[in-house]
Each structure stands twice: as C-alpha cells, then as structure tokens.
Amino acid sequence: MQDPTILDYVKQRLRFWQKRTLRLRDFPPIGSEEGISQPVGDLAGSIPLGSSSVESVKVLKPLPWRMLLGLSLAFMAQALLEPPALHKTASLVFYMAAIGMTIWSAICEGWFEFPREPLSSDMLQPVNNIVRWQPVLAALLLAAVAYFSFSTYHFDFLNICLWIGAILLYILGFIDLDPIYKKISGLKRVIKEGFWQVRLSPWLLVGLAAAGIIIYLRAAHLVSVPPEMTSDHAEKLQDVQDVLNGQWHVFFTRNTGREAFQFYWTALVIKIFGTGISFLSLKIGTVLAGLIALPYIYLLGKEFAGKRAGFIAAFFTGIAYWPNVISRVALRFAFYPLFAAPALYHLMRGLKRGNRNDFIWAGVFIGLGLHGYSPYRVVPILALLITLIYILHHRSKTDTEMAITGLTVTGLLATIVSIPLIRYAVDNPDSFFYRLSTRVGDLERPIPGNPWLIFFDNFKNSMLMFGVSDGSAWLHSIPFRPALDVISAAILYLGFALLIYRYIRQRNWADIVWLISVPVLMLPSILSLAFPEENPALNRSAGALIPVFLIIGLVVDGVVRVIKRFVNGRKADVLAGALILLMVIISTRQNYHLVFEEYQAVYRAAAGNTTEMGQVIHGFIDSNGSADSAWVVGYPYWVDTRLVSIEAGVPIRDYAIWPGQFEDTRSAEFPLLFILNMQDDADLAELRSMYPQAIENVYQSQTAGRDFRIFLVPDNE
C-alpha cells in the first residue's frame, strides 16, 4: 500500500466528521528517504530564507488567529444583547460568524481537541468484584422496616436508627475498603513525617486569590443584599421554628408543601451562629450550600479535562451572578446544584473508572438531593440517561455489566436514603406532587394552548436564557436580561458548537452528556406548561449551572491549549494568562454590578418594606412600649405582617390588625402603636376618632414609594 501524503492529511482534515487516522507526527523526518522532518504547522514558522539549513533560521509561528477572531466575534455578538438595547438580528449575524470561525479554528488549529488519557490499571476498580450479601440483605430488610416506621411522617429516634442502619449496612455490603485504607495510611505517614510545610507556588497563590474573590462576592453585604423577605421566607422561618420546637416533619405542608432539608439545615445554622429566626439565618445556610458545590464542579472538570479546566469552571461559577443570586435569596434553590454536582461527579467518575465507591457516593447524594428541592427530581432521570449513553458508547460486555451493576448500586442506595420521603409520597401523592401538577397539568389553571407547542417554545426560551432573557421573576433574577455575563454567555454558545463538533469527531460519551445535561436539568422550568410565562426561571434551572460552567471551563482551557501549541515557551504563558485575566476582570466587574447594584435595585423596588416597619416596632418595644401593643393595619396587597414581627424580633407573633378589631386595642397596655398604609385614609380616620390624642408621623423610607404612616397613642386619657 502506498504511504500517505500531505495531500491525504489535508483531505482528512477537511472531512472533520470522519475519525482521524493520520497525525502529523506519523510522517517521517525531512532528509530521510521517507519524507518530512516536522509537522506542517512547525514548518510554517521555520521556512529557510537563503540558507540550506532549516535549523539556522527561526521565524515566529503564526498566532491562532481563527480562534481569537471567533472569540472576539462572539463577545461582540453577546454585547449586542445587553439591555436596554437588544440588537437580536445583528447579534445573530455575529454569532453565526463566530461559530463558523470557531469550527474553522477547530479544524485547522485543533481548538478543543486533546488526547484522551487512558486509565492505568490501578485506577480501574471493578464494581462487581465483591458483594457482601449478608449486610446487603440485612440492609434491604431493615429498609423495609424503616419504611413502615415512617407512617407518622415524622422523624423520631426509632425510625432514624432503622433508616441510618439500613444505609450503613448497604454501604458496608458494597464498599471497597482498600482505597480508604490507603488514604488513612497516607495521612498517617504525612502526620508522622511532618510534611506540613506549605510551598508558595504560583498555582497556590492563584487559588487563594480566586477563593478570596469568590467568598467576597458570595458573602459581601449579605445582610442587606437582598434587603427584604417575602411571604415564602415567612413560611420557611415558621417551618424552622417547628424544627426548633421538636416537630421533625419529613415533609412540610405549608405553602403547598416543601422538602425538609433546608429547615433542618437552617436550624443547624441557628444553633452554630446564634442568628435566631431571621433572614440572615436562611441566607447563611443557602450561601454555604452554594459554596460547597464549587469543589465538586472543580473535581468534575478535573476528572474529564484536567485541573486547569476544573479550576476555570469553578471560578466562573463562583463569580457569576446567577448562582450568587439564587444563593442570596435564601430559598431552597441553592440545594439543587449542591446535591446535583456531587451526584454527577461520582456517577460519571464511577462509570469512567468502574469504581464501586463512587457509585455508592452517587446514591447517597441522589437520595439526599430529593430531600432538598423539588426540581431535583429530574436528577435520577438524568442518571439513567447518562448510564445509557455510556453503554451505547462502550458496547463491550464487561463495560455494560459494570454500568448496569453500578446504576443498580446507586439506585438502590438512593431509594434507601429517600425512604422517609417515599413513604410520605406514597400516602400523600396529592400533597407531594401538588407543585408539579399545577405547572405540568391543569390542576390550577388550564394549559393555555397546545402542550407540545408550549413545550418547544419553553425549550427554546430556556436555551436562550443564558444570552437573551432569564425570565420575569424579580425575586431571583434581574428580569429580562441574560442569565450570564457577556464573557460567559459568549463562551458557552461557542462551547455548544465545539462540543457538537468534537462529538462528531471523537464520539466521546462525556461530551454528549454535557450537552444533554443542560436541557434535562432545566426541565423543571421547561415543563411549566400551564404557566409558560414563568419560563425561563433561574431557580428551577439551577442544576443546569453545573454543565453550563463546566462547558465554559472546557472552552477556556481549550484556548490555553491552542495558544501553547502555537506559541513557544513563556510567551505562551504570558499571552494565555493575559487573555484569561482580561476575561476574568470583565466578567467579575459585570457580575459585581449585576448583583450589588442592578439586582439590589430591582429587588428593593419590588419588595415590601417590612424591615423598616420591624425596626420601628423594635424601637417602640425598646423604649417604653409593649410587644403586645403594636399593630400593622391590614391593607390589600401591602406587606406580610408575619415578616414585620420577625424583623421586630418577635417571630411568634403576627402584628396584623383589621378595622373590626380596633375596639380590642382599648384594653391593651398603653402606649399603642399603629402602622398604616399611606393610602389607608378610612382606617386612619377611624383611629383618629378613637384616639384623638394620638401623635401622627410619616416614616420616610429609603425606597421611593415605600413610606408608611405611624400612629402613636401615648396614653389612655
């Protein structure tokens, strides 16, 4: 057979959809009887000019201009979508040009291609080698008993012991103890030898700086951003109070029903930090949840693309406005990525390595996540899809058996971990599935049109969420602006194109997983068929931020790889570092502005001013007033008076009073305090007739349009 030529290589590069069989390094050296001495890309940078020696002349290699131009076009395209001016047509043209240039770069410059690293034999730990059937059977029996013990839908000492016992026995039946022994031995050796010295490497300094930036953006001004609670927060704090009072529900039925994890988590925060029944307690819990998810995003990126890709993915997640806002708003949203990130990491790592311990951890996190936030219910579906994708790409009998066994181990353990919730759901399906039924079905209102058309329209709007509009909800977003900053959104859309290209070329199962994970994890928002105006939603799509920022990390890491391929030595480090630093500065600055200025302004303008009312009542109590002698006069569509009592430091009281109850205040301890809406002239007139000696004042709110009246009755004479 005739040896391949450069022409054969070029033809193969143009047919990017076919599997590559030729590499430049496969061609023989120049000067030999067989052909060329170095890759064509290197020859372009070292053409001899008037010299017979190729090595005697050094010419700089060309920069990867296609890649840099593709990035620039994408950034311009996304900048055209920034509010208030939305130039959608122009943006589409720029994005098409950017994607075209990006694919050209992938073909010619190798962007987003890197060799797969084969697993070494010590990394492979077959999942089905060891099963200790006695503890497994005992665990299943104990799990059945635990299921029946949760008939009260409350946690108590007996059913907790049965439940935890079943989990531990099941883990004992499958766990591989050798890696644990090795880690313990390694830790003992470190302690014994005293290797506690920290070497200040550049990577360590970069990591510390990144951690400092992330923690600042997530925790700065936590008390005041966002400034006010809503009725949802009042319901949650009442549930937390129930936990502190010993009412350990499996599922909390207030406000159409909610899973329990946040209430126990917040109770723990209160015990540790002493912050009491407050907005701050809820915020601390959810901000911690958001931060805990970041190491797993790093590990996921590291496992499939290297440390640098994982670090970039985690950093861009840490500074982004989307995950920051859904953590700060202090509702259950942050628990979606908190449990989805480790579940995806351990499941995919288990499939990649055949590691039984990873399948065990995946089962734990999938089960725990079901106790966190109802949109998480799509994660078990995604786990099944990921396993099917792996099997379709690894058709050997060994790989298939490993994947099925691993999924079985994961699924059974997830079921055991979620037993309390399963028992409640079986006995109370209407309550458990109420929220889902009102959005997917017509339980609350008829579906406004053809369900399939609404579904596909929702799908389109969700996929455009990152760069066009994140929806209309002021509570957890800046309405009608992109969910990502200019840099991240542009990189993400290029990443979608690059992943499709690379999958066509390499058929890597992980690439297709990242692509399908985004819409699957957004299904809780996409499936809002009865209320399509609620889609897209940053809260119900929160799990999708994991693959979204992982794709961003993969693309930026690919940029660094291409630069290092085209530029020699330290110049490559300087150029790549400068480009990434520029992107980081722009992204960080915009995300800071979005969270602390735009989101804060939108939230303050839409929310009530219960904090200021609570402060007035708190001051009244601290002076010479009584907690039982203050009221907020009810007015339609005004404030949740339960929040006023919480802000006043009296969380067990509701300060609402209605006109028919005014006479009851005559028997209260004086002085008396009434807070009224500025437009409530009728109730003000009635109070004036009852208490002509009262002192009236208008409280000037920090937020325009949020003033209220103060009606103070000094005595009963």
Distance between the termini: 114 Å
**Classification by helices and strands:** mainly alpha
Number of domains: 4
Number of strands: 7
* Strand content range: under 5%
Helix content: 55-70%
Spatial order of the strands in the main sheet? 4-3-5-7-6
Overall residue-averaged pLDDT value: 89
* Main pleated-sheet profile: 5 strands, mixed
Q: Give Rg in angstroms.
A: 30 Å
Number of helices: 29
Outline the low-pLDDT stretches: 29-60, 117-125
Query: So what's the overall shape?
Result: globular
Describe the structure.
59% of the residues lie in helices and 4% in strands. With 717 residues, it is mainly alpha-helical. Helix 11 (279-305) runs parallel beside helix 14 (335-353), helix 12 (307-319) packs across helix 25 and helix 27 crosses helix 28. It has 29 helices and seven strands. The protein has helices spanning 6-14, 40-43, 65-79, 88-109, 133-149, 157-174, 178-193, 202-219, 231-244, 261-273, 279-305, 307-319, 321-328, 335-353, 356-369, 379-393, 397-417, 419-427, 429-432, 434-440, 451-464, 486-506, 509-521, 523-526, 545-566, 569-606, 610-622, 641-647, 681-690, and strands spanning 251-252, 258-259, 630-633, 656-657, 672-677, 695-699, 708-713. It has four domains: 6-56, no CATH class; 67-109; 176-605, no CATH class; 610-713. The chain has a five-stranded mixed β-sheet with strand order 4-3-5-7-6, with helices on both faces. It is globular and about 105 Å long.
